Amino acid sequence: MRQRYRRYLRPLTRGPRGPIIHLSPPEILLGGFLGLSMLGACLLKLPGMHQEGLSWLSALFTATSAVTVTGLSVTPLSEFTFAGQAVVLVLIQLGGLGFMTIAALSLVMLGQRLPMHQTSLLREALNRSSSREIGRLLRVITAFAVTLELGGALLLALEWVPRHGWGRGMWLSLFHSVSAFNNAGFTLWPDSLLRESRNPLVASVISLLFMTGGIGFAVIGELRERRREHGWRVLLHPSRFSVQTRLVLEATIALNLLSLVVILALEWGNPDTLAGMREHGERFISAAFMAVTPRTAGFSMFDTSAMTQASTLWTMAMMFIGGGSGSTASGIKITTFVVLLLTTRAFLRQRHSPTLHGRRIGDETVFKAIAVALAGMLLIFSMLFGLTITDPDHDFRSLAFETVSAFGTVGLSLGVTPELSAPGQWLIIITMLLGRTGPLALGYLLATRSRPGVSYARTELSIG
Questions:
Q1: Cα angle vertex 80, ends 78, 82, to 5°?
Q2: How many CB atoms within 10 Å of residue 96?
Q3: C-alpha Rg value of the chain to the nearest Å
Q4: pLDDT at residue 352 is higher than 50
Q5: What is the reported pTM?
Q6: Which residues contact 137 (CB under 8 A, 6 or more apart)?
Q7: Which CATH number among 1.10.3470, 2.60.40, 2.10.109, 1.10.287 corresponds to the domain 1-132?
Q8: Which member of 71, 146, 249, 272 has the greatest number of CB atoms within 10 A?
Q9: For 391-446, how does the pLDDT look when each residue is reduced to its tens digit (9 = 90+)?
């Protein structure tokens, strides 16, 4: 059997004369997501996948949203049959873990060495400067993801099985657990999780799942390694973690707390959101949930279209920042955001380099952060500019929100996406694909670029 699988996987491991060498890792990454999206669209077009049938554009939009773990949809998943929902679930899992991770894991399990092009891309995706132990880390990632998804499904089943019965309850639990861990934001209800706003168990489990998936696989791997070495008490000694892990954990906690304060302050008196809830406990649960979901998942516990303009702007900022590097979340990544802040602080203090926890952040990292953030802003501007042309009847606030949500592959919506024209939906599809693959591809290009053979004279320019 192993020989048979090796024969099937041989194209992935062929040497320099093999056909795959003609594609760069960013092209392989984008091509993989495109291929999965088109395959998913073909499956969703099959008879029996949807109650009334789908157009090709709607099928492609849904498949792309699932593969890029975005959650935006032009057709509610409640209108799909069980088979159609199962296809979406598989696409979410493949897109969340990443097709390159799954392909590489298959090779590792078969005892084969990873090709150089896959190793380079995985080093960037998993935020590892060395190629060692990538295979072991991939096994840990997959086992951890499956274990957490099954555990989350069992906890959700405690709430949903008594209400919906064994079959429906277990399916709801499994689907939402996988969707949450992979930061997809898809639900089987047309109103997201609004009906669960009074349920602390559902809110806690869903939040734990998407926050864990959003901190990054490299951070998860290091937490596991340190726990095995020192036990749970290692959490009381942050200095034993790498600077990368400390940055992600500290910045995540800080942003979540700040976002909670902002949402409570801006929405507490809004009768269409928090003020419309009778109990203070329900208000706090919904506010806490909505404080953390914009950077990663895209679930919602109140109507996002009813938020104040200030809350909408804050949510867009959180969606742009995103989650941890190498995670199921997208955006420019929280590490990029912190590096930009530290670089600005260093400039204002007239220091040559930004520092963090007694370490100097290298110029390469600073350049990479600037490039990723600027590329993200240019992509959002370009797609938003296009949407204002293709869909001029919609207000600018709604179009901007949908664009940033697509870039960050978040899935929060003001309800405009289903109403977009066909060209507008194509722009959102492109934004979802580039938002999912762009930062990683750009990071790879910056990490592997050749050094110039010519040294140019230095010059100074007026800035500001």
A1: 100
A2: 24
A3: 22
A4: yes
A5: 0.86
A6: 126, 128, 217, 218, 221
A7: 1.10.287
A8: 71
A9: 999 999 999 999 999 999 998 999 899 999 999 999 999 999 998 887 666 665 65
